[in-house]
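Exercise 7b. Backbone tokens:
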């Protein structure tokens, strides 16, 4: 293992880290990438499920619990003030990261799933009447399907689905046709976790706004791969998870436009979300606290802030460019594996390589790759309707991050040849 005598990323090299330093240098910052599995060096290609954490994130968590642990928004004592300051500056960091206008538009949640449920249960509950419609896409993760089904069922509203083509691209003409006076909300993923498709989210938003319909974007798979600017997108809500952005699990973000969040009822009741309570009536707190009942994941916010700092030091444009090259290389070498079919061949893709091997179940592919040290996900990827659309029970999926290398993809291809040998 490295002794880390050399400077950390960003300490001396601020510009074009990936290009000037190279991914091998970056890999040194991620301790889990050095582990061995089944006696083989780990080749981690399951980044869509969760990403590994750089040392700076781990150290921020340790420092908080070692030196600063205290509850926020409560104490007059010093540690509570320190924790509150760190927590709120984490909010500012997130606000800057997505270029939101105000800190109060940044709500801390447990993750993407909770952010979407929050909007469904508050905005959705207020806005939906019998006969109304919520419009989602055919490539949504279950997190952006089930919360809408639940509230639609309760309200007698209907869930409508924008179809996609065989490459995994949304059919925008169909989308246009599905937008009607009954549509009360559009909820679409920025990047598909099962296919890698990058949706033309700006067009999706503009078309909905043309009819006065708000749009929620599921950004779980986007924020780690590309710059995201919520004001440029003009989305009404944008949800993502810290753990897919090199930060801790259990922390997520819901961005919402202030005027919408102001008008929404609270999600959960409890401490911190109130400004005054009597047995007769409660006056709710202002934004963002109205949506943050109870002691929040303080360490999670601090770790997420460190993760964002790390990603910014590497550079989001550099990450996007590097991963585009990696994806092109991966596509080329996987296509050369006999009997392999890529699922998800959109023109605009992020680092996801979903595939099936002729006559071999995805779980067998995943299990044999695991024995070779190669970690991929095999299954429906919490997107069962996507599997149904392609007539498959499951796919194997390699998903990339900026610490992956061409050597990782070579190891994957080699592993796949092994899989074929085993099943020959
Ligand atoms: N939306 C998308 C597009 C996702 O990919 C995921 C998680 C979620 C929502 C839910 O995020 P969570 O952090 O709240 O769980 N996707 C995956 C995946 O592809 N493999 O494991 C989790």
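Sequence design result:
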């Amino acid at each position: 293992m490295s002794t880390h005598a050399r400077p950390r990323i960003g300490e001396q090299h601020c510009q074009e880290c990936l290009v000037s330093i190279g991914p091998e240098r970056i890999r040194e910052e991620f301790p889990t990438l050095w582990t061995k599995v089944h006696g083989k060096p780990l080749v981690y290609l399951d980044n869509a499920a969760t990403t590994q954490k750089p040392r700076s994130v781990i150290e921020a968590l340790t420092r908080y619990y070692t030196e600063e642990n205290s509850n926020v928004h409560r104490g007059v004592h010093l540690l509570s003030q320190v924790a509150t300051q760190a927590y709120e500056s984490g909010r500012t960091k997130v606000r800057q990261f997505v270029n939101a206008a105000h800190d109060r538009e940044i709500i801390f949640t447990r993750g993407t799933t909770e952010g979407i449920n929050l909007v469904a249960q508050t905005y959705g509950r207020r806005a939906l009447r019998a006969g109304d419609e919520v419009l989602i896409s055919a490539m949504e993760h279950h997190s952006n399907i089930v919360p809408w089904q639940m509230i639609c069922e309760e309200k007698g509203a209907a869930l409508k689905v924008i179809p996609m083509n065989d490459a995994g691209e949304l059919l925008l003409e169909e989308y246009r046709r599905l937008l009607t006076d009954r549509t009360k909300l559009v909820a679409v993923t920025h990047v598909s976790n099962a296919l890698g498709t990058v949706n033309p989210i700006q067009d999706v938003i503009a078309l909905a706004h043309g009819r006065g319909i708000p749009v929620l974007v599921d950004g779980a798979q986007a924020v780690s791969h590309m710059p995201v600017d919520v004001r440029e997108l003009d989305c009404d809500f944008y949800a993502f998870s810290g753990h897919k952005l090199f930060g801790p699990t259990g922390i997520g973000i819901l961005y919402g436009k202030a005027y919408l969040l102001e008008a929404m009822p609270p999600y959960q009741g409890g401490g911190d979300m109130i400004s005054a309570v009597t047995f007769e009536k409660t006056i709710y707190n202002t934004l963002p606290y109205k949506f943050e009942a109870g002691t929040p994941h303080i360490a999670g916010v601090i770790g997420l802030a460190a993760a964002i700092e790390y990603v910014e030091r590497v550079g989001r444009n550099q990450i996007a460019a590097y991963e585009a090259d990696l994806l092109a290389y991966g596509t080329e070498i996987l296509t050369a594996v006999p009997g392999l079919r890529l699922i998800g061949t959109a023109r605009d893709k992020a680092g996801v390589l979903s595939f099936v091997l002729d006559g071999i179940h995805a779980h067998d592919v995943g299990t044999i790759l695991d024995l070779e040290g190669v970690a991929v996900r095999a299954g429906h990827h919490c997107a069962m309707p996507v599997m149904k659309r392609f007539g498959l029970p499951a796919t194997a999926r390699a998903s990339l991050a900026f610490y992956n290398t061409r050597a990782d993809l070579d190891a994957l291809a080699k592993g796949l040849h092994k899989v074929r040998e085993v099943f020959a």
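Instructor comment: The pocket of 7TS is lined by residues 48-49, 111-113, 141, 143-144, 189, 193, 218, 220-221, 241, 377, 381-382 (CB under 6 Å). The first helix runs from residue 17 to 20.
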